[in-house]
Amino acid sequence: MSVRIIDSFTGKYDFLSNFYIARVHLWGVDFPSNEHAFVWCKNSKQFKAEWLDLSPGKVKQKGRKVTLHSNWDEVKYDRMYDICLEKFRQQSWLRYRLLRTNNAELIEGNYWHDTDWGVCMGNCRNSPHIPVGQNNLGITLMRVREELRK
């Protein structure tokens, strides 16, 4: 039996993206998207309140310029899990949609060379024609899906 693969968080599966607008309340803050919450985790002291009004793409750009917590590499995957879990716990209609992916392998396929959170699907730095990446966002979403099934 083959496993179904969802390898793009766009269109029908755009709700899986961290850029998807879905409020998540964490750490006493209402974030408009997972991307906003993730950037806040990088350095909450440098996160400005007006960033909550920015698009997820703009807040990601701002997040590239903040000073990361000294232990960021050790905690970033746990923070992403926490954020994703709360997104789907707090939004029942999104939880339903995630659970409807059943046992599909979730791959954050991209063309912007993100080989940590996703899989670069082509024209990648080291392998121009072979998908490359660790797919940590896809793995996180599959963990969340399993947790929500319990």
How would you explain this protein's 3D organization?
The protein is α/β, with parallel strands linked by helices. It has a single domain (5-149), classed as YbiA-like (Tetracycline Repressor, domain 2). Helices cover 39% and strands 13% of the residues. It has five helices and six strands, in the order E-E-E-H-H-H-H-E-E-E-H. The strands form three sheets. It has a two-stranded parallel sheet with strand order 1-4. It is globular. The mean pLDDT is 93.
Distance between the termini: 24 Å
Number of strands: 6
- Summarize the biggest pleated sheet: 2 strands, parallel
Average pLDDT for all residues: 93
CATH class: Mainly Alpha
Helix- and strand-based class?
A: alpha/beta
Shape descriptor reads globular
Strand order of the largest sheet: 1-4
CATH architecture: Orthogonal Bundle
Helix content: 25-40%
The Rg value, from CA coordinates, equals 15 Å
Question: Considering the protein shown, what is the CATH homologous superfamily?
Answer: YbiA-like
CATH topology call: Tetracycline Repressor, domain 2
What is the strand content? Answer: 5-15%
Unreliable sequence segments:
none
Number of continuous helical runs: 5
Number of domains: 1
The quaternary state of the protein chains shown equals single chain
H/E element string?
Answer: EEEHHHHEEEH
